[in-house]
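User: Structure tokens for both sequences below?

Assistant:
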Amino acid sequence: MGKILLITRPKYDITTHYLFYWSQELIDLAKEKGFSVFNLDDKRANAKEFNSMVRKHEPSFVFINGHGDESIVCGNDNEVLVEAGKNEDIFTSKIIYALSCRSAKILGRKSIGKGALVYIGYEDDFIFFYDNEKISRPLEDKTAALFLESSNQLVRSMLKGHSAEDSSNRSKNKFYENIKSLLSSESYDNFLVPWLLWDLKNQVCLGKKDAIL
């Protein structure tokens, strides 16, 4: 199993629209760092293609963007990709980052129990805010950036060779930096502080914390 990244990027509602565009820089970085990248974007982020690509290419790093709950992560149109108690063994020997609500609570732990190397995710909802006037230009959205730059920091660090735990901590530090910046200013965005803290506290790193790509 070489340096292979598999990323899912559905794009069918506002949340996934933002994650779709904000993850492009990570694809570019992965290629720059010598990773082979399999990009399941838009309608390709479905269960059939996902399962086929994971089993065929054995990616070292699986990055899930999409909705979910305690037991599942989803792809296009909320189609379930992985479900606890059904097919979490597909993550065996892999490092997983799920930018998906609540999936670390049950699916993450069951995945580790079935042999996943690392599962980084959120024990409760991953929440971010956006500027309604920037929906058509999500990369220009400074409100969303407070959350998504912090999340991206985790993947960026993993791709640069940092350990799973260190990458998670760097992501949390980015959340904290944004919190401090808001608190030290008179910005109307101060109301975002509790939600940045929420994401920071709910991000967990399970499994072999010293694992690197």
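Moving on to the next sequence.
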Amino acid sequence: MFTGIIEEIGTIVRLDRGARSAQLVISGGVIFSDLKLGDSVAVNGVCLTASAISGTQFTADVMPETLDRTDLGSLRPGSRVNLERAMAADGRFGGHMVAGHIDATGTVAGVRRDDNAVWVTIAAGPEILRYTIEKGSIAIDGISLTVAAVDGSGFSVSIIPHTGSETTLLSKRPGDLVNLEVDLVGKYVEQLLQPRETAIQSGGITTEFLAKHGF
């Protein structure tokens, strides 16, 4: 579990592509103070496992499903990435609950300055927008952000100077892909409601049955 508070910007040292998988070698600094083999690291919001560590570099294997759902396959040596270690049990919860499991990618549709802030608009599909609400939380490339506006084609966030300087988001340009993870709560609520709705629709439990038994 992560919080979406980026610890540092790392650099892709190497990306070795297999038939459908890949292996990443990533360099950093801050996260290596206590990084151990098997630890989870969010790389642009994608939860990866450190399978090897050498100095201030770690290696992570990327399976086909992850390459299909994220922008990791488009990275190149020299690409900058947001890094966050898994949240410590005694740490402050500064962002929101981020699993590191990307729901889909979006596309940067626009970037505009507004005094000391920068508005970034992301074009996203219905699988993202159904869980996206104004003033709700979303993770973009692993960054915990507040949704400032939503419409039928995407959503916008407003970036403060600190977030802009400590993450890679403002280096993105219109047309660039970003990894998106919606708030977990909405997905869990929807999933928990589905069995009840299915049962009612199939006749297993009817509204008459519920009324008869005091519901």
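User: Anything stand out in the second?

Assistant: Residues 4 and 144 are 4 Å apart (CA to CA).
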